[in-house]
Amino acid sequence: MATLYERLGGDGGIAALVDEIVEAHMQNPQIKARFTPYRDDPVHLEAVKGHLREFLTSGSGGPGDYHGKSMREAHRGMNISEAEYMAAIDDILAVLDRHEIDPQTRQEMLGIAYSLKDDIMHV
């Protein structure tokens, strides 16, 4: 059976997913205020996307290790609400749907997202 990394399309697939997920967050009325400032700082935006690509690549069985902050460190002080967290999850699932990611892979991605919930919300 293919790894999650392979099912997501490897480096190219993950890069496309991250780009679209971040863009979806920037359009989502519930969370766009947290993401649209990145548009004015393209260097920071690319750094954030790079960390997300590395995190997803490493966490899905791809090559290399993740070198960024832990989820708890990255979200500390942001006080993300459950509504904001769910809005982000909805964006992720919508992007996976657009990429015609199979149901099992979508379920695994959802499982990963939910496993990180306590490290993202209200920290």
From TrEMBL:
It holds the Pfam family Bac_globin. The keyword Zinc does not apply. InterPro entries: Globin-like_sf (IPR009050), Globin/Proto (IPR012292), Globin_bac-like_CS (IPR019795), Hemoglobin_trunc (IPR001486). One of its GO terms (biological process) is oxygen transport. SUPFAM superfamilies: Globin-like. Coiled coil: none annotated. Keywords: Heme, Iron, Metal-binding, Transport. One of its GO terms (molecular function) is heme binding. Heme binds at residues 51, 75. The keyword Transport applies. It comes from the Bacteria. Its cofactor is heme. This is Group 1 truncated hemoglobin.
